[in-house]
Write a structure and sequence with these properties.
Diaminopimelate Epimerase, Chain A, domain 1, 42% strand
């Protein structure tokens, strides 16, 4: 099985053209994501034909669970699709079918190479039942108190097609024990479909610093939907302007949201290497 590996701001995935092959993709995601015995990645993304868009993307986390969307993954996905001739690029955005709906991706070129992309990430979902959060009532969930490991935490809820719980802290996010607290928040009873957990420092009205515990993958270098979610949460709290740079361990993403309508994300695309996965490796 031929594959390519890409990363967007350090969030890395293995990409496979699945238009002419069928496999147990969840099992394969676990095998290839292993950083000791596999290729090493945050998950697997496969390319499929679509009846409603130019191409279809399915993404699987490192634990084999399927996610609705990946903001960093979708940028690299369009470059992968171009490289395997799954689409021809004209002067238009590429439409991509995802588990979170059809999204538009606009490649950005440098010297004939796609090095960045802008993505229309859709409208944020703020109703508790639709995120989902196990709460009664309507309207945004802002600074809702939950108890984790004996401590009270205030989280703001946002879905970008997948659920996020965002917490703003004064302590440097680099010093926060996210490896210990992240899994507890992910599986908290408030989140029936589990949740991605972001901790955030407010640097200025145009800059945030964040780290992410991704549902199904754990600590990652970056999360595109998470970057969008933290900007939406910060905007709801009146902390930021419409254009915000989000600093993540693997790099920076540019997010635009004016308080209504869809969120726009721009970030880098980088190919790491390509190769062939032998079935013996997965045994």
């Amino acid at each position: 099985m031929k594959f390519k590996k890409f990363h967007g701001a350090g969030n890395d995935y293995v990409y496979v053209d699945a238009r002419s092959q069928t496999k147990d993709w969840s099992e394969l995601a676990i095998a290839v994501s292993d950083r000791h015995k596999g290729i090493g990645s945050d998950g697997l993304i496969i390319l499929l034909p679509s009846e409603k868009a130019d191409i279809r993307m399915r993404m699987f986390n490192a634990d084999g669970s399927e996610g609705e969307m990946c903001g960093n993954g979708i940028r690299c996905f369009v470059r992968f699709a171009l490289e395997v001739n799954a689409l021809t690029l004209e002067d238009r955005p590429v439409s991509v079918e995802t588990g979170a709906g059809v999204l538009a991706v606009t490649p950005i070129w440098t010297d004939g190479e796609m090095t960045r992309a802008s993505v229309g990430m859709g409208r944020p979902i703020l109703e508790p039942a639709e995120i989902p959060f196990a709460l009664q009532g309507i309207g945004p969930v802002i600074d809702h108190a939950i108890e984790v490991a004996g401590s009270k935490m205030l989280v703001t809820g946002v879905s970008m097609g997948n659920p996020h719980a965002v917490m703003f802290i004064n302590k440097d996010v680099d010093d926060y024990p996210l490896h210990d607290i992240g899994p507890l928040v992910e599986s908290h009873s408030l989140f029936p479909n589990k949740v991605n957990f972001e901790i955030v420092n407010l640097i200025s009205r145009n800059r945030l610093k964040t780290r992410v515990w991704e549902r199904g993958s754990g600590l990652t270098q970056a999360c595109g939907t998470g970057a969008c979610a933290v900007v939406v949460a910060a905007h709801l709290k009146g902390l930021v302007d419409d254009s915000v740079t989000v600093e993540l361990p693997g790099g920076a993403l540019e997010i635009y949201w004016a308080g209504q309508g869809e969120v726009i994300m721009e970030g880098p695309v980088a190919e790491v290497f390509e190769g062939e996965w032998l079935e013996l490796q997965s045994m």
